[in-house]
Amino acid sequence: MQASHEFQLFQAELRHFVTNLHHYVMTRVIYSVWTEHKSKLESAANVDDLCAAHAAYIEANLARCLLKHKKGTANRVLQFIRAMLGLVLDFTSVYRVYLDSMGIKAERRALPDDVSRENPADSDTESEDELQMPSPRGGAKEQSAASVAEAQRAEQIAQMGDIRDRFKQQHRLLMLLLQRKVEKGRYPHLEDLLVRLNYNGYY
User: Fold this and answer.
1) How is the chain split into domains, by residue range?
2) Which region, left, alpha or beta, applies to residue 72 given φ > 0 means left and ψ of -120 to 50 means alpha?
3) pLDDT digits over 43-97, tens only?
4) Helix 32-43 vs helix 47-64: angle between axes, to the nearest 10 degrees?
5) Model's pTM, two decimal places?
């Protein structure tokens, strides 16, 4: 249960990261750049002005989506973000399997092992032999299956812990990179990304 609670908290961190990336794109890219583009279109005097405004619009979108340059700071930030989104997908996949295994375990414990899932009224003619406890051999099989399931859950917990540690490390490095570039004042749009992803100074 302690592990489940810890990973629920980590899942909130992942949700915060993905949600604020989405908000950054919606506000600093789609809304902001489009607003600037509309004002340029309204002031265009000819077709050349329209073409120039459109080219500037594309350039601004690429820059704020960190896609303009294949080298440099923006590309390094993009590499961090892509790696972290990959970890989000990895964690989601393992965590889903882990929760499914916990749900199966809880369902099996819904009824005692020695209680039949059939309706007793449908089996009035059952003999005493049919109601005997499972054989030791069957019990051993059940114990073996339980041991395998427990080992799988332990492996899943270890995998999720490793993903969590790697994500936190990547996040701290990303915050350091953004902080240094924002302090130089060369990337004003990255300041908004830094504020959004810094989790109220958590990192």
Assistant:
1) 7-110+138-201
2) left
3) 888 999 999 999 999 998 888 888 887 788 888 999 999 999 999 999 999 998 9
4) 170
5) 0.72
